[in-house]
Amino acid sequence: MMLGTRDNLRGKIVQVYRLAIALGFALSGFVAALGLATPGARAGEDDPSYLVGGIGAYDLVQDDNQAIDFRLEYRHGKGLWIIKPWIGVEGTSDGAVYGVGGLLADINLGRRIVLTPSFGVGAYTEGDGKDLGHTVEFRSQLELAYRFDNRSRIGVAFSHISNASIGEENPGTEVLNVYYAYPLDALFGR
């Protein structure tokens, strides 16, 4: 059986990725709705705000314009139930810049493991990097992290950035990042 052209293979990989992200969000919601997350570890009054840094591989799947991805985010500790706001800036080694903000859900699977699906929208400029087809871009992400005793976290995240076909072209891109989240209450001695 012939796999087809490289573009067809990329299309299939992107479809599988999108399905995996959708299933991740569905699983996250299911776990939260059923209360399978441990009661003491759910998002609550004691959740800190985080300053989050990340580094990773940009355009990992399509491989049109690979670059190093850098991220800095602020994740607010308070929200509605498990939904919290976040805001950040992302840049690549090719000069692309993306200012983005959105919503996330920290779902604690036990004392140490945190699953964080998130969604955001922002403004993108390509610099010398990949043209994503529009200034307005959307980011969906699934992150899995390990929480330390001081509540800092280290994790890995897979995200998709695209313009959701609001532009004539919608090449999108996938990014694999390693994150470190530092609790801001530790920074300010609380």
- Tell me the β content: over 45%
| Secondary-structure element order, N to C | HEEEEEEEEEH
Arrangement of strands in the largest sheet: 1-2-3-4-6-7-8-9
Assembly state (oligomeric): single chain
Q: Give the averaged pLDDT, no decimals.
A: 84
Q: Which percent bin holds the helix content?
A: 10-25%
Structural class: alpha+beta
Helical run tally: 2
Number of strands: 9
N→C terminal distance:
61 Å
What is the fold named in CATH at topology level?
A: Porin
Over all CA atoms, what is the radius of gyration?
A: 17 Å
Low-confidence stretches are 31-45
- CATH architecture title: Beta Barrel
Number of structural domains: 1
CATH class reads: Mainly Beta
**Form type:** elongated
For the biggest sheet, the summary is:
8 strands, antiparallel, barrel
Plain-language structure description:
With 190 residues, the protein is of the alpha+beta class. The chain has a single domain, classed as Beta Barrel (Porin), CATH 2.40.160. Helices cover 17% and strands 45% of the residues. An eight-stranded antiparallel barrel has the order 1-2-3-4-6-7-8-9. It starts with 5 loop residues before the first helix and ends with a helix.
